[in-house]
Write a structure and sequence with these properties.
The structure holds 2 protein chains of 2 kinds. Chain A is mainly alpha-helical. Chain A is built from 25 helices and 6 strands. In chain A, strand 3 and strand 4 form a beta hairpin. Classes of the chains: A mainly alpha, B mainly alpha.
């Protein structure tokens, strides 16, 4: 494949960032918006060309005997620290990176378009588009990375752009603290990621993904059975690398930043905190999947973390008031779903049964469909917020009459996430649940329960926003549908959410490149649909019309409701640990040492220096006789001392 | 005698040629012709500098080995030339002033003659030639120091300079006469190396070593042979001060390396290295301690340059190819950094006559570009990354620690501590310019064209010399391609 297109895909967004970032202040808002949208539109077209060429051209570079290949379009040496420590930079095409190219550019383009309407009249409009371009560049660079170090660099870059965008309203203290929180928490997780990378590459002598994943047993062998604290070093490396993924993908206990990240503009939440950046962790596990398969402990760890997170986030989502927070917890829960799906996938037979990495395919499928319908939901939420100027559902209610387009598209999104046939979410969720049941009935049952909760809290929000009772404020300020720039992306995404399930996804993305023929597991499908429908019905009974039932349920067990509403006090726990223990005890003693020992020593040096400087000033008397005397004395003393010492 | 041997002295011939042209032009041209003297001298010198950079060194030893022209000497001459060229640019406005204009030809002539003397110091492989070079580099300088005829300070400085210079020459020659006694009647470096390193260590030779160090230490203003420095720097015209502080030091440092490694390489290396050890510590520390207290910018730069000379001499104590290469690189970086600072000082002095550090308070409000350049120069002198001074310090420290003895590690540690002290006083200037809340005492003014060129050259050098690896590579290759230096280093290292 020609390298022009891949290079352009990365070059256009970063150029846009530079143009808008440097020249933005001098541009009109319209100009900046049009430039940003055109630039991203071009990128999207190119990305589609590259991805579709990869899937459909049948070129032997990409597919051999029906098996899709990993292909490095280019991979050049970037930093050569030593002979063996070499960092490359390149462009890797394989089923998942091509998939991500499509997902990122699609959502990013929708968000660019949508923001033109949503951000109209905001201060710093040009800056906003510059940051969006920076983010798109970083995310594209992340998914096409040929080696784990390149991925790490772009991983940090998406972190930075996310930080910049969350803190976009930098005059709001809450936005500033949210951006700091997001950056610090993910950065903390990335520390683990970096250590993991170093351990892994220390043993394997390579950063390259293809080298590692094409020969996972070689990776295992290269560690030579070394262990650390009872676990093999490979387990440590893979778990630490997964820690980075936990940070970015907001797995427990590092999830605390994502709900606060909703302080950013809503289109940003749709792009970064729903569809693309937060799935970077899933992408990372998928990227390293063959290596993870050789480490049972790491896979179990992923399953457990994912299962707990999915359930926790679903419960918390049931007790939130802010609709963006509900969507945020729903995102956490859905990403955890994908994690579990990857965790249960094995490429090797277990107890005689061969699972063929069904979970991998399903997880990636769900990543794709989830990106579409979650972006739709966020953009819909943005339209609602745009109309009523509040994030809370208490300011909404009965909006279906006022905002028909938003209502219908939002309903599509809810149906998709609830997993109702024929919406896309049904297909991907069905495959995931089938994979989980195939591994062990416990995982299947647990996650089916989470799926039921999902349907419940989504429709709770849907009914509270669009049904319930009309808010009296509508009389003074009548809500209405958003302008076309905002409605168009909603409609497009709604159609995609409806249809995406019919894509024969297994033909395109599987763990080993061989096609997998999707077939609906009827028993699983029927069960999950039944549960989803029951959950929706329950939500309907409770919230479709104004009634005292929700209040009764709430008062039935107030502590539980309060705890769920306060997210089970995770933030308070973090505050306690950081403020009371780290700042209060550890930092204080260090500060004391710093002030009284280190600073005091330095002050002492400074004082001695000043005093000596004052004391010897007489040497520079200005009298030439004295100068010459010093001169001869210096020469003689020098000779004498050396003579005494050496002879 | 074979007169074709003179053909090998290309750099000297170039400088002499320029000298002759300037001299004849100055003598025979009319009043009008004198106006183009400055541009003519500057452009001729630029062409000469380029020629020295380009023309490859012959690598020959001529006059029976008295004089050598190899890549290393050629490189250090080229580096000195860059310094002189910048000094010429800086002095362009000063030489046009009423008091000096009538004598400006003399300034160029004296400058070129001293430069010629430094060339001889660098290339000499015989003490007689070396002394001739040293004297012709010293005596005309006294006339230059006294160039502001009507200023009392200028006279005082010149007297102090000439007295100390004569005294130091006497000491140096005394030392050399001891050496002569031991070397079997030869003053060739190579003969001395063979003859004095044969037997036991002698007390007389130790005295000789100390005297030679003192003699050259005068030019480098090493402590305790430095006391003339501050007074002379303060009294001399600023252009002469900047010339004294970089070019004359660069030549002396290089000559020092050659003399000590080639002549006193094997048996006496312990002796002179320990002497230098003490002298370097004293130089860096005392220079710093005095610099802290200075209020006059020229005195301040005098003590700063004393302490910098100590850092330069670290390369001599490393005494190997890397040491010489990093010493040359340090000199080059020091040339642009120090001259950058002097460029700002002389620009301000020429336009407003202010020289006190207090006058610099709030300078950024009226002269942001000058303040920026001064900040660059101060950062580079203090060794703050990513400016050139950081890399030159790193390289010279590495060359010293490369030999691996604990004493040298201690030396580097002391040098590092002193770097912190130096940071304090360099930042005093930066603080005065940027942070001090006072109203600026220096108004906005338009600096001369030549001054601006020199400012830009120095600024570019400070920023790019460290980042572009070519410069250091140039020094390193120059040293490695000089067979006679490498040979004597080899003898020295495998003693």
């Amino acid at each position: 494949m020609d390298i022009t297109l891949p290079i352009l895909i990365l070059a256009i967004p970063i150029t846009m960032f530079l143009i808008l970032g440097i020249g933005g202040v001098k541009m009109s808002k319209k100009m900046a918006g049009v430039l940003g949208i055109l630039g991203l539109g071009t990128t999207a077209v190119l990305a589609y060309i590259v991805a579709l060429t990869y899937y459909f051209s049948g070129d032997p570079l990409f597919i051999v005997d029906g098996v899709r290949q990993q292909y490095q379009v280019f991979d050049v040496t970037w930093l050569a620290f030593t002979q063996s420590l070499v960092v490359n930079i390149g462009f890797l095409l394989d089923p998942i990176s091509a998939l991500m190219l499509i997902v990122i550019t699609t959502i990013s383009f929708m968000v660019h378009l949508y923001s033109w309407g949503y951000m109209e009249g905001e201060q710093g409009f040009q800056r906003y588009y510059a940051f969006l371009s920076l983010f798109t560049f970083s995310m594209l660079g992340l998914v096409v990375a040929t080696n784990i170090f390149q991925m790490y660099i772009f991983w940090e870059l998406v972190g930075v752009s996310s930080y910049l965008l969350i803190g976009f309203y930098y005059k709001l203290p809450s936005a500033v603290s949210a951006s700091k929180k997001a950056f610090i928490v993910t950065r903390f997780a990335d520390l683990g990621f970096l250590i993991g990378i170093l351990i892994l590459s220390y043993y394997t002598d390579t950063f390259n993904f293809v080298d590692m994943t094409s020969n996972p047993d070689g990776v295992l062998l290269s560690t030579g059975g070394a262990t650390f604290m009872g676990a093999s070093v490979l387990t440590w490396a893979m778990v630490l690398i997964f820690t980075g993924g936990m940070g970015k993908s907001a797995m427990m206990p590092l999830h605390i930043w994502l709900p606060d990240a909703m302080e950013g503009p809503t289109p940003v939440s749709a792009l970064i905190h729903a569809a693309t950046m937060v799935v970077a962790g899933v992408y990372l596990v998928a990227r390293m999947f063959p290596v993870y398969c050789t480490v049972d402990a790491a896979m179990t760890f992923i399953c457990v973390v994912g299962a707990i997170t999915a359930f926790y986030a679903a419960v918390v989502a049931c007790a939130q008031i802010d609709i963006k927070r509900i969507l945020a917890f729903s995102t956490i829960s859905q990403i955890a779903f994908m994690m579990v799906s990857l965790g249960v996938a094995y490429d090797k037979p277990i107890e005689g049964v061969h699972y063929s990495g069904l979970g991998y395919m399903a997880g990636m499928f769900h990543l794709f469909t989830h990106a579409m319908f979650k972006a739709l939901l966020f953009l819909g939420a943005g339209a609602l917020i745009h109309a009523v100027h509040s994030n809370n559902y208490t300011a909404m209610g009965g909006l279906r009459k006022y905002m028909p387009i938003t209502h219908i598209t939002f309903l599509f999104g809810c149906l998709a996430i609830a997993g109702i046939w024929p919406f896309s979410g049904f297909f991907s969720k069905d495959e995931m649940l089938a994979a989980m049941f195939a591994r062990h009935w416990f995982w299947g049952a647990w996650m089916t329960m989470v799926a039921g909760l999902t349907a419940f809290y989504m429709f709770r929000m849907y009914f509270l926003v669009f049904w319930w009772k009309e808010n009296p404020h509508y009389k003074e300020h009548k809500p209405h549908d958003a302008p076309w720039q905002m409605s168009l992306p909603l409609i497009i995404l709604a159609i995609v959410s409806l249809c995406a399930g019919w894509i024969p996804f297994g033909e395109f993305v599987t763990w080993n490149g061989e096609p997998y023929h999707i077939h609906i597991e009827l028993s699983v499908a029927v069960t999950s649909i039944c549960i989803a429908v029951c959950a929706i019905a329950l939500a309907g009974v409770m919230y479709a019309k104004e009634n005292p039932l929700p209040a009764k349920v709430k008062s039935f067990w107030p502590t539980l409701w309060e705890a769920a509403h306060r997210r089970f006090y995770w933030d308070e726990i973090y505050m306690f640990i950081t403020h009371k223990i780290i700042f209060g005890i550890i930092c204080k003693s260090i500060a004391w040492f710093d002030r009284h020992v280190i600073d005091a020593t330095m002050d002492g040096f400074a004082k001695i220096t000043q005093k000596t400087s004052y004391a010897i000033r007489g040497m520079q008397s200005g009298e030439i006789q004295a100068y010459v005397a010093w001169y001869i004395a210096g020469a003689v003393v020098l000779a004498a001392i050396t003579w005494l010492c050496l002879i | 005698m074979d007169y074709s041997q003179f053909g090998s002295m290309i750099p000297e011939l170039i400088v002499l040629g320029i000298f002759m042209v300037v001299f004849l032009f100055d003598t025979f041209s009319g009043e009008k012709g004198k106006k183009i003297l400055t541009p003519m001298a500057t452009i001729l010198f630029l062409l000469g500098t380029i020629a020295i950079w380009i023309v490859p060194a012959s690598g020959e030893e001529i006059f029976g080995g008295m004089y050598v022209n190899n890549t290393a000497t050629n490189a250090i001459k080229a580096i000195l030339n860059v310094g002189v060229f910048i000094v010429l640019l800086q002095s362009a406005k000063w030489v046009q002033s009423d008091e000096v204009a009538i004598r400006k030809g003399e300034f160029y002539e004296l400058l070129l003659v001293t430069l010629f003397g430094m060339y001889l110091m660098v290339s000499a492989r015989h003490f007689l030639l070396f002394i001739i070079g040293l004297e012709s580099a010293s005596l005309p300088l006294a006339a230059m120091v006294a160039f502001n005829k009507r200023h009392y300070e200028s006279h005082e400085a010149a007297i102090k300079y000439i007295m100390t210079a004569v005294f130091s020459s006497a000491i140096l020659l005394t030392g050399l006469s001891f050496v002569y006694a031991f070397s079997g009647g030869s003053l060739y470096f190579s003969d001395i190396a063979v003859n004095i390193n044969r037997g036991e260590m002698s007390g007389l030779l130790l005295a000789a070593l100390a005297f030679v160090i003192a003699g050259i230490g005068f030019k480098l203003s090493l402590v305790p042979f430095h006391l003339w420095t501050a007074d002379v720097y303060e009294g001399a015209p600023t252009a002469v001060t900047s010339y004294l502080s970089v070019v004359s030091k660069g030549a002396a440092a290089f000559a020092f390396f050659i003399i000590f490694v080639q002549c006193f390489g094997s048996v006496y290396s312990d002796a002179w290295e320990w002497m230098m050890y003490a002298v370097i510590i004293l130089t860096i520390t005392v220079g710093n301690l005095f610099a802290i207290r200075q209020k006059n910018m020229k005195r301040f730069m005098a003590f700063s340059s004393i302490s910098q000379a100590g850092y330069i001499m670290l390369g001599a104590i490393a005494a190997d190819g890397l040491g010489l290469a990093s010493m040359m690189f340090y000199i080059f970086v020091y040339v642009v950094s120090n001259l950058g600072a002097f460029a700002v000082i002389s620009t301000i002095e020429d336009n407003t006559g202010k020289l006190s550090m207090d006058d610099y308070n709030g300078l950024h409000k009226t002269n942001p570009k000058l303040s920026f350049l001064m900040t660059l120069a101060m950062f580079s002198l203090a060794g703050i990354p990513p400016f050139a001074g950081f890399f030159s310090k790193i390289l010279i420290f590495t060359s010293v620690t490369g030999t691996g003895s604990w004493a040298l590690y201690m030396l580097v540690l002391i040098a590092l501590i002193n770097t912190i002290i130096s940071l304090y006083y360099y930042l005093l200037v930066v603080k005065a310019m940027w942070i001090s809340p006072d109203e600026p005492k220096i108004g906005n003014f338009e600096s001369g064209r030549c001054q601006r060129v020199s400012l830009v050259l120095c600024g570019a050098g400070i920023i790019f010399f460290g980042l572009v690896p070519y410069i250091y590579q140039y020094c390193y290759d120059a040293v490695m391609n000089s067979s006679d230096i490498i040979a004597s280093i080899m003898v020295f290292v495998f003693r």
